[in-house]
Structures are given as C-alpha cells and as structure tokens.
Specification:
It is a single chain. The protein has two domains: 38 residues, no CATH class; 34 residues. The model has no long low-confidence stretch (mean pLDDT 76). The chain is mainly alpha-helical and 72 residues long. The chain starts with a helix and ends with a helix. The radius of gyration is 21 Å and the shape is elongated. The protein contains three helices and no strands.
C-alpha cells in the first residue's frame, strides 16, 4: 500500500485499474513511494466493529424518523 497523494503525483500513471495496481507496486518496489502505516489486526477489527455500529445507528435513525413522520 502507498499513500494516495504520493501515487497521484508520480508521473506516468496508467488509466486502467489493473495497470495502475502494477504501476504502484513497481514504484513501491523501487522505493519511490513510501510505506504507509497499517494498524495491527486487533485495531483493524475494532475499527470494523465501530464502523458497523455507526452504520447501524445511522440506519436505525433513518428508519425511526420515517416511522415517526408516517404515524404522526
């Protein structure tokens, strides 16, 4: 993985996703793009749970507000 702002600024970027992936991999291998921080498995799992909970709360809010409007 590479920071998107570095990858966008590098010249010679191809248009297709598959070619883009290979291009980023090559730049990373050559040391042109810096590595990015990737949190540990526990942190990624916690972020996933937090993201899911946020989405469920948002969905519940939409559903309950629509119910209130129809039943009032």
């Amino acid at each position: 993985m590479a920071p998107p702002h570095f990858a966008r600024q590098a010249e010679g970027r191809p248009g297709a996703d598959r070619l883009d992936c290979q291009w980023v991999r090559r730049l990373r291998h050559l040391g042109i793009l810096p590595a990015v921080f990737q949190p540990g498995d526990a942190t990624q799992t916690l972020r996933g749970y937090t993201r899911q909970r946020t989405n469920l709360v948002r969905l519940g809010r939409r559903t309950s507000s629509g119910y209130r409007r129809r039943c009032s």
